[in-house]
Amino acid sequence: MKSRNLESVRLYCVLIALVGAGLLVPIFLGSSLDLDRPSKFVEFGALAVSVLVGELFPIEAPRRSGDGEITVSVMFSFALLLGLGLVPALIAQLTASIVQDRFARKPWWQVGFNVGQYTLSLAAASAVLSWLGAYGALRGTGFGAIDLFAVVGSAAAYFVVNLLLVTRATTLYMGIRFSEALRSDLIFGLSVSAVLLCLAPVVDTVFQSSPILYPLLLVPLVGVYVSGRQTVRTVTAEHLARHDHLTELPNRRWFMEAVGGALQNAALAAGGLLLVDLNGFKDVNDTLGHHHGDLVLQELGPRLRAAFRSEDLVARLGGDEFAVFMPGADFSAAQAAVQRLEDALHKPVDVDGISIALDASVGLAWYPEHGTDVDTLLQRADVAMYRAKAGHHPLVVYRSEDDYHSPERLGLAADLRQALAVDQLVLHYQPQVELGHGKPVAAEGLLRWQHPQRGLLAPLEFIEVAERTGVIKDLTYRVLDLGLRDLRAWTDAGRQLSLSLNVSVRSLLDRRFPDEVEKLLVEHGVDGHSLTLELTESSLMVDPELAKRTMRHLAELGVSVAIDDFGTGYSSLAYLTDLPIGELKIDKSFVRAMSSDSRNAIVVRSTIELAHNLGLRTVAEGIEDAYTFERLRALGCELAQGFHMSRPLPASGLVRWWDVHVGQQPVANIGQQPGARPAGVPASPIVVPQLSVA
Ligand code: C2E
Ligand code: MG
Ligand code: MG
């Protein structure tokens, strides 16, 4: 990440060094040291030593544009400029700067830059003094009002040139916006420089009246130094307490305080609280180590800040989680910001030559609809964020029915227990067609809940509640019971097909599970070879040893295991060689996009190759058109499932569909439109959940 930045900052430093060096030539040719009187010699010696000591003992000070230092040497070199002229000031300041930089083992280009920036800053200050004709007066009888004006102007010139040159160098290195860094460095720099530069004429006056007083003046100057150091420490401690050290963004504490305060403000009519969670960041940490993870966050912090409006508060809550409060924002403003954020994250971060591009899942809760205090809003944005992650959506708005803690959700959990007791759960079936000959050979059972008030609910609406409340185990047994009962009825009627059913991770980790499957197979008189159980990649990773034992036990029953939604998990592929798996189901997100995006087509082709090389069967789900169907056939994929052939159908509908398509023309030639129902098949009025997706 920094190597490119380092290149440009080095170039910039060399440029400033050259300009400074170029300027030194006419300055030294045009004037001399001019220490004709012993008093001047004493003044020069005392102040030059003071400059050197000031350089050697800087005050460390964190700034927006990176860690900085305050050197009190500027007070003495500015005093030299006012009292003795530019050449003595330059000699003292440049010598001290070179000694300190070499002492600190800074590279030559940094040494050169400091020489350049001090030369330019002091030359600018000197030019203002000459322009206002103040030099003579300063070395004469003392200060008048006009001299004071000249000194302030000269100090301002020094300050501005120095600030611009140094901030540019540090922002080039940090890769942050110049204007932004300048704004925050300005306040800090001004407060410190004002104190130091204003003391310079006092130092001068002491030398003009009686140099012997200088040691006495040093006592309060040391006091200024010590209290300056203390102030910086206090400011730093406060800064650290309210900022995240990696990204320099406000931290959780500040965010909670600031948003809490904003919500108390009667003038605030509306606002959005966004919770941003980086996807795949854990992989960066696990693969490249925490140091590299930190570098990525360091780079992403400013990008995140820049994606939002200036009035928005962007904070890092911890890890890869960020929160944003957008006062007065509406959905389109939030959506536009999230789009900018996604664009910024997609731009790869270069860490030690490795390019890393990320994306994020964002949950959004509205003030005041979803909550009137910051804790509630955060909790609700968190619920929405998890939904965004689960559904691979960039932005999801909070809905009470997704909230495990919401009354609706708790009600749903209670209803679900009731549903199991009164047979409201039904299975719909989606046929699977063998691509080779185009005939149906299997079906996947997909659960539906016939809710008395809410109509037919899709699994997305209730599976998660079932998982969280533990109802899922009974629910899986019910699915197996229903599926095997229907399968037995179909085979008894002479229809030859096998059945796939979905199993959640909780069931897989239930030690009784294989025995229960065996019991149900026996009960329904179904051969285990006609049953496939679909598991997701992530479920295998929770307890791989137990998963392996369960799968071996299932394999002994003849039951095969398919990996559902293959390609969407973040797990290692090692399990493919280690576990008794029979089938990979390529996720519909890849299949659906195959025809429009060549990269998805490559993923599908490679998955089929991988599966075949490992001796596994492939099923492509989400086929919505004849073109995709044909391409998958050409790629050698075994089974096809999708709206192009049929949507999931109730058991009776599947039977009718089956009888129409078995023994007749191959399915792909039917020319069915995506989503169209074959004649005679009743519509299945599934309540499709409305996602709030950007
Ligand atoms: P899944 O197992 O990957 O099931 C495939 C999902 O894709 C089904 O959604 C199906 O309707 C949909 N689909 C099939 N073909 C197409 C297509 O061409 N285009 C599009 N856009 N979608 C297609 P459904 O029925 O809503 O199920 C969603 C998920 O719920 C399932 O994904 C599965 O993970 C879960 N699920 C379903 N039934 C059960 C069950 O009995 N137990 C458990 N634990 N999970 C279940
Ligand atoms: Mg499935
Ligand atoms: Mg799937």
What's the short story on this structure?
With 694 residues, this protein is of the alpha/beta class. The protein has 26 helices and 19 strands.
Characteristic terms for this protein:
694 residues, alpha/beta, Arp2/3 complex 21 kDa subunit ARPC3, Alpha-Beta Plaits, TIM Barrel, 3 domains, 8-stranded mixed β-barrel, 5-stranded mixed sheet, 26 helices, 57% helix, disordered C terminus, binds ligand C2E, binds magnesium ion
Task: Show the helix and strand layout.
Layout: H1 2-30, H2 38-56, E1 59-63, E2 66-70, H3 73-84, H4 86-103, H5 108-131, H6 135-138, H7 145-174, H8 178-209, H9 214-242, H10 252-264, E3 271-279, H11 281-288, H12 290-307, E4 313-318, E5 321-327, H13 331-346, E6 349-351, E7 354-356, E8 359-367, H14 374-390, E9 395-397, H15 407-421, E10 425-434, E11 439-451, E12 455-457, H16 463-469, H17 472-492, E13 498-502, H18 505-508, H19 513-524, E14 531-536, H20 537-542, H21 544-556, E15 560-566, H22 575-578, E16 583-586, H23 588-592, H24 598-613, E17 617-621, H25 626-635, E18 639-641, E19 649-650, H26 651-661
Parallel strand pairs: 8-9, 11-13, 13-14, 14-15, 15-16, 16-17, 17-18
Antiparallel strand pairs: 1-2, 3-5, 3-8, 4-5, 6-7, 10-11, 10-18, 10-19, 11-12
Helix pairs in contact: 1-5, 1-7, 2-3, 2-4, 3-4, 3-5, 3-8, 4-5, 5-7, 7-8, 11-12, 12-13, 17-19, 19-21
The protein binds ligand C2E and magnesium ion (MG) (2 copies).
The site of one magnesium ion (MG) has 4 residues, from loops.
